[in-house]
Amino acid sequence: MTNRPVFAIVAVIVSVSSLAGCGGSSAAPDGAATGTGGKKDGGATDVAGTTGGTAGAGGTTGSGGGAGGAASFPDIGKPCAADADCAGGLTCITAASKTIFETEAPAHGYCSKMCAGDADCGNAGLCVGVSSQTATTQVAYCFQSCTFGDMAAKCHQRTDVGCLTLDKTTIPTTDVCYPICSQDSDCPVGRKCDIATSLCADTAAAGDPLGTHCVSNPEAGTSTCAGACLPVGNGGTTVVASFCTMLCVVGSLNSCNWVPAGTALTSGGAHGVCAFSSTDAQVGDIGFCAQECDTAASCSDQADPGLSCDTSEPTIGHGLCTWG
């Protein structure tokens, strides 16, 4: 492999089931929901369209590679505020920068380096294109590699970085540690969390918030959501509901703009918990958010049948909107 695009979210049917990763649990609901991207011939996977159908696909062409044996860059993927926070010749993609899509950046920073191919990232990372399709110069950076579904600790155990599958067609699959934000407070003052990409931006994508009933066009990669439109169903086959969601890290309660018991759900935007993921997901992998609730009446999606507020998981502090 050379380099590839960050990802294009493809949300397939997930089952309504028990919570995934709440309070440190690694249990995942039945069904599947995953991020995936296509590897280009001779070049990059792109930082592609992403969760809300946001346009943009780019990538760095070329095979690249460093001379000699594979270097070790153990700091790839660590949080940072400046280059000095990153060892081994790496630099900091700061949360205030406009490195990804020429407009956005990872929450809390990400130690990395520019690359032309995987060999430039040593044995700790993969080379991923981060440019928009219209960029004059295509750029790629090293992202920490990981194994989706592995029970071992991953991604420096950051709660704002999750293991995301870029390409499911490779053996093993192509997985990287992808940085995410879930609320504006994850980003520097003056920037917002763009849940279409889960990155910090000056302006977030427009669309409906977490929990809203949604309609999507998978072929066009569009929906009514600011993030992704996630279909859920019994047994992972029959859709019983579709609601707006965003990315989260399985096992992290701080994802999804979560608030604990005693904090009202009526202020600070929509609140949720990381409750949906693929069947093989473990703590530290990327999942999808479900809206928190106190009663069924507090769920935004009142259009889908069989609505209830599941309060069976005490670690959340509130209930979880569910259907069917």
How would you describe this structure to a colleague?
The chain is an all-beta fold and 324 residues long. It has a domain of 107 residues. Helix content is 0%, strand content 28%. It has no helices and 22 strands. Strand 12 and strand 13 form a beta hairpin. The relative contact order is 0.19. The N terminus is likely disordered.
Layout of secondary structure:
Blueprint (H helix, E strand, L loop, with lengths): L2 E3 L2 E3 L3 E2 L18 E3 L54 E3 L10 E2 L4 E3 L12 E5 L10 E5 L16 E7 L6 E6 L12 E3 L4 E3 L14 E2 L4 E2 L4 E7 L3 E8 L1 E3 L22 E5 L9 E8 L14 E3 L8 E4 L2
Parallel strand pairs: 1-8, 3-16
Antiparallel strand pairs: 2-4, 5-7, 6-13, 8-9, 10-11, 12-13, 14-15, 16-17, 18-20, 19-20, 20-22, 21-22
Quick tags:
disordered N terminus; 5-stranded antiparallel β-sheet; 22 strands; 324 residues; globular; mainly beta
Taking the alpha carbons of the first and last residues, their distance comes to 43 Å
Mean pLDDT: 78
Count all strands and give the number.
22
Secondary structure tally, helices? 0
Low-pLDDT residue intervals, each spanning 5 or more residues:
1-70
Brief account:
By secondary structure, this protein is mostly beta strands. Helix content is 0%, strand content 28%.
